[in-house]
Amino acid sequence: MRAKIVAGNWKMNKTVSEGAQLVEELKSGLAKVDASDVTVVVSPTYVSLSEVVKIAAGSLVNVAAQNVHQEANGAYTGEISADMLKSVGVGYVIIGHSENRTTGETDLIINKKIKSSINNGLKIIFCIGETLLQRKKKLTHKILKNQISKGLKGVKKLNKVLFAYEPVWSIGTGIVPKANDLEKNVNFIRNNLSNKFRLKNPKILYGGSVNTKNVKNLKEINIIDGFLIGAASQDPKKFIDIVKKTFN
Ligand code: PEP
């Protein structure tokens, strides 16, 4: 394991009080762990962000939003802009999650979201990954290359972008890619970022059905810099266990 990032995505789960409780438990659990060089990130829903930012202040826990709107302001009912996220103290934002791509988020929208978020001083967790059909058609590298080049087009301050390789067929399915497949694809992403964007040491997380059991094997894949975790991040005991297993 090259570096140390464990990010949780709560998705549309947890009320404000449930989220607050989860972060309190994380804080006390992590205080007992030697995790000083670990970046832990949680991603509550928009309505919990303020409360979670307050509780997490001064702890190892960083806070991400799960999404952002690409425009700065205007007639976009129900949407939240990057400067609004910044104003509540959020440090990170997840962009390009496959659950949003499948409901109409295009590469162009993703690109605008990344630019707007960087302009507002946020760090990005940029999700990329192929569907099962694309994998079966052996299109994985083509898809990854396309998602990267369109998502990052014209983006400055690329050091603000973390990458999350999330094969769509692995999210929420309990299926994790074989180690050599994962290595091959993460290496492809690394080479692509190096050749096309001169990014020499990008942080690349793996996401898709990471749990307390498979994390030990996954962490042996030392070209991965950490994990983006959905289901298992919503239980503080499991999440703390994953943090411990990742870095011990
Ligand atoms: C995700 O949604 O980004 C994710 C990785 O989910 P899960 O860990 O539940 O597969």
**What's the number of extended β-strand segments?**
8
Overall 3D form: globular
Radius of gyration: 17 Å
Reading side by side through the largest sheet, how are the strands ordered? Answer: 1-2-3-4-5-6-7-8
Write a brief caption for the model.
The chain is of the alpha/beta class. 40% of the residues lie in helices and 15% in strands. The longest helix has 19 residues, at 179-197.
Describe the structure.
The chain has 248 residues and is α/β, with parallel strands linked by helices. 40% of the residues lie in helices and 15% in strands. The chain contains 10 helices and 8 strands. The protein has helices spanning 16-31, 49-56, 82-87, 98-101, 107-119, 132-136, 140-151, 179-197, 215-219, 236-247, and strands at residues 5-9, 39-43, 61-65, 92-95, 123-128, 161-165, 204-207, 226-229. An 8-stranded parallel beta barrel has the order 1-2-3-4-5-6-7-8, surrounded by 6 helices. Helix 1 (16-31) runs parallel beside helix 10. The radius of gyration is 17 Å and the shape is globular. It starts with a strand and ends with a helix. The model has no long low-confidence stretch (mean pLDDT 95). The structure holds phosphoenolpyruvate.
Topology (elements, then pairings):
Layout: E1 5-9, H1 16-31, E2 39-43, H2 49-56, E3 61-65, H3 82-87, E4 92-95, H4 98-101, H5 107-119, E5 123-128, H6 132-136, H7 140-151, E6 161-165, H8 179-197, E7 204-207, H9 215-219, E8 226-229, H10 236-247
